[in-house]
Amino acid sequence: MIATNMIKRVYVSETFQRRLADLLRSGGTASLIAGRAQAIIERATSRGIKDPRRLGRLTKRGEARIVNCLKYDLGRGYRLVAVLKNREFFVLFIGSHDECQRWLKRNQKVRPLGHDETVTELEVESGAREPEPGGVSLIHEPDEYEENLMRLIDDRILREVFSGLVGN
To answer: Quick one: DSSP state of residue 58?
Structure first.
């Protein structure tokens, strides 16, 4: 279980910074994905959200290969891998689903706190509070790919798929 204490410090790995810069330079979808990753980091540093699971949408299956690992779904098959330990939030990797799987496999036995590479500490605003209830939920942020798929589905397809549940 991941602790839900307020984030005290945020660290960003050199690998993450390099890959984020590459995505930003690429433009298009890659730039959009990079922006989503930057938004997660911004929420971690500017609001000091108590529950890191609310920084962005987590993947459905989570991640068990690294203790206290959080894997965020950035859309379009991209992921952000982070670790929370002792109120310190380590942003370690960003990439496609397959790139993240390879990175996690290579790093599953490594101490997950970025000790094996250079990390940059980001300042977390003091006095930051959890957003008020009733605000925008970050967990269920719509995914463009899923929205586009839903636009292609009409009543005829739904009736065919759910014919056993709904009378024609």
So the answer is: B
